[in-house]
Amino acid sequence: MEVQIPVGNVTLPGKLEIPEDALGLVLFAHGSGSSRHSPRNNQVADYLRQHRLGTLLFDLLTEEEDQIRSNRFDIKLLTNRLASATEWVLEQEQTEALPLGYFGSSTGAASALRAAAKMGERINAVVSRGGRPDLAEQALDQVKAPTLLIVGGKDTQVIQLNEQAYEQLQCEKSLEIVEGASHLFEEPGKLEEVSRLAAEWFEKQLIGQ
User: Fold this and answer.
1) Which of 113, 86, 88, 96 is CA-nearest to residue 170?
2) Confidence of residue 33 (pLDDT cuts 50, 70, 90)
3) Res. 209: pLDDT tops 60
4) 89, 95 in Cβ contact below 8 A?
5) Per-residue DSSP letters for 133-189?
6) Would the pLDDT of 25 be above 60?
7) Domain of 145?
């Protein structure tokens, strides 16, 4: 279902899909230069829906805003947009009662973690794929939601950044290295492994709420 999400003085387009008997809803925070049409995030979202998890993929920026490259790295702006979208979800009849999780990729992982810190107990789980949690450094020790960091085994610099962020997280946490995978998990079967790890994490954390 196509949706329009009002945030401040703009409206962001999104796609909300909820399977029958949904266990929860996962909001996606994409990385810089990406959008709700991201093939990788859509592949993960398809997998999550097969496991009774609803998904919301939406643009964090309008088309005009996205033309300004600095906006793509404005973590504070992106965090506020994600938090506003979360508030919108909590006001919709079909989603208000569902446990919520965030799935962030690349720089979107930083906004997901910062929004999770901001939203507190309303966020039940966070998953980061090839993320930059270090960009959420000041908020990491405030995150309460159980957090899974997934990094490709070939993505050595990002592994180091994730290991540093992992040490700062005070919540339930896990760090998974997908061996043989690069930053975008483009190798055969690697994104499927990310999807499996994410689904297991969300199922564990959202069902327990």
Assistant:
1) 113
2) low
3) no
4) yes
5) GGGGGGGGGG--S-EEEEEETT-HHHHHHHHHHHHH--SSEEEEEETT--TT--STT
6) yes
7) 2-207
Within 10 A of 146 (CB to CB), how many other CB atoms are there? 23
Going by C-beta distance under 8 Å and a sequence separation of 6 or more, which residues neighbour residue 184?
40, 130, 152
Average pLDDT over residues 89-108: 95
Helix runs in the chain, H state only: 39-50, 63-66, 75-91, 108-119, 156-168, 190-207
Q: Average the pLDDT over 60-69 and give the result.
A: 88
Residue 138 CB neighbours (<10 A)? 10
Q: Does the predicted model carry a pTM greater than 0.90?
A: yes
What Cα–Cα distance (Å) separates residue 177 from each residue in 69, 115, 182? 30, 24, 11
Task: Write out pLDDT tens, residues 188-201.
Answer: 999 999 999 999 99
Weakest-pLDDT range from 9-23, 27-41, 66-80: 27-41
**CATH number assigned to the domain comprising residue 29:** 3.40.50.1820
Total number of domains constituting the chain: 1
What span, in angstroms and rounded, lies between the C-alpha atoms of 175 and 85? 27
**How far apart, in Å, are the Cα atoms of 133 and each of 93, 145, 161?**
32, 14, 7
DSSP label at 36? T
Task: Name the residue with tokens 């990094």.
Answer: 151
